[in-house]
Amino acid sequence: MAGATCELCGQANQLWAAEIHHIVPKELTSEAELPDSATVKLCPNCYQELVDWYARRVFDMTYDSGLKRFRPRSLAEMVKEYEAAYRVFAQHKEGQRKRA
């Protein structure tokens, strides 16, 4: 069976073990009526790490200093939030690869 390499850690996997991950969840791009986001091929470990990373770092609320209260993020803000969280995660994984 053909192999696939994780785009974050570089680990070679069997094709069936690779996860195709949308950087911005499909549900969000559909709701925002945007084209699907970029995808990355991830090993199961990086996929789970990224899901956990998003859970800890992507928030659907933001503090509005003008209103002096929290408010829901707009769809455009959420897209940017996911893209930024992915960029930071990819940099984190690159740092791990360099130290290994």
* Helix-strand pattern: EEEHEHEEH
Q: What is the general shape? A: globular
Whole-number tally of structural domains: 1
Radius of gyration: 16 Å
Helix content: 40-55%
What's the average pLDDT?
88
- Taking the alpha carbons of the first and last residues, their distance comes to 28 Å
Individual helix count: 3
Folded structure, characterized:
Helix content is 45%, strand content 22%. With 100 residues, the chain is of the alpha+beta class. It has one domain. A two-stranded antiparallel ribbon has the order 1-2. A hairpin with a 4-residue loop joins strand 5 and strand 6 (69-72). The longest helix has 25 residues, at 75-99. The two termini are 28 Å apart. The mean pLDDT is 88.
